[in-house]
Amino acid sequence: MPRTTLAQDAQEVVRAIALIKLGARMQVLETELALPRDRLIRLYREVTGVSPPKGLLPSSADWYMTWMANIHSSLFYNTYLFMKNEAQCTHLDALTKAYRLYREHCTNTGAEALLDLTRAWTLVRFFSGGILQMTQCCRCSGKFVAYKYDRPTSKACALCQPPSRAGKGAKKSGSAPYREVAAPAEALSLALAA
Ligand SMILES: [Zn+2]
């Protein structure tokens, strides 16, 4: 580990606490912060009162392609890009700020925050790993999360092209589940279009 000043060290601790409060898992903390693992574990326990959960992180990009998850992911990633490119935040600041805004937006619109911080972080990694890209919707021209190597046909976003049924378990005939989830989705779309 490179030598760090006390001030830099303190900043890393502040960043770690912010991430832990937002729900970051150990792998996120270890990747993003220059703090030893044992200190991160102690910080995690201090902030949350419990030990960090074990287990593997989600590793498939397919999760981001399901209808509702795609709307949430697109909203988050558009915000992340704004923070990084327009507000000139570092990757970590952009992640933290965009995630906070995303959660506030969900709270304000009464939508459940489908994306936890680890999912949001993994999403950014899929983008930097060249697996995902933002694609422009052929109807509303908003940008949404898509596979990088999808055929470049004209594609509509999840908001413009909702599935005929909502969720895997839903009966084909029932349109009610769609309406239930569509209301918060429409509220989210306002932020996407901005
Ligand atoms: Zn669209």
UniProtKB/TrEMBL annotation:
GO molecular function, one term: zinc ion binding
Function, as annotated: Functions in complex with FlhD as a master transcriptional regulator that regulates transcription of several flagellar and non-flagellar operons by binding to their promoter region. Activates expression of class 2 flagellar genes, including fliA, which is a flagellum-specific sigma factor that turns on the class 3 genes. Also regulates genes whose products function in a variety of physiological pathways.
Protein name per Swiss-Prot or TrEMBL: Flagellar transcriptional regulator FlhC
Organism in which the protein naturally occurs: Trinickia symbiotica
InterPro entries (alphabetical): FlhC
Positions annotated to bind Zn(2+): C137, C140, C157, C160
Biological process according to GO: bacterial-type flagellum organization; positive regulation of DNA-templated transcription; regulation of bacterial-type flagellum assembly
Oligomeric and partner information: Heterohexamer composed of two FlhC and four FlhD subunits. Each FlhC binds a FlhD dimer, forming a heterotrimer, and a hexamer assembles by dimerization of two heterotrimers.
Cofactor(s) named in the record: Zn(2+)
Cellular component annotations (GO), alphabetically ordered: cytoplasm
Superkingdom: Bacteria
NCBIfam families: PRK12722.1
Name of one Pfam family that matches: FlhC
Chief location category: cytoplasm
Record keyword Transport present: no
Taxon lineage: Bacteria, Pseudomonadati, Pseudomonadota, Betaproteobacteria, Burkholderiales
Keyword annotations from UniProtKB, A to Z: Activator, Bacterial flagellum biogenesis, Cell projection, Cilium, Cytoplasm, DNA-binding, Flagellum, Metal-binding, Transcription, Transcription regulation, Zinc
Family matches, as SUPFAM superfamilies: FlhC-like
Subcellular location: Cytoplasm
Cofactor binding annotation: Binds 1 zinc ion per subunit.
Entry's family note: Belongs to the FlhC family.
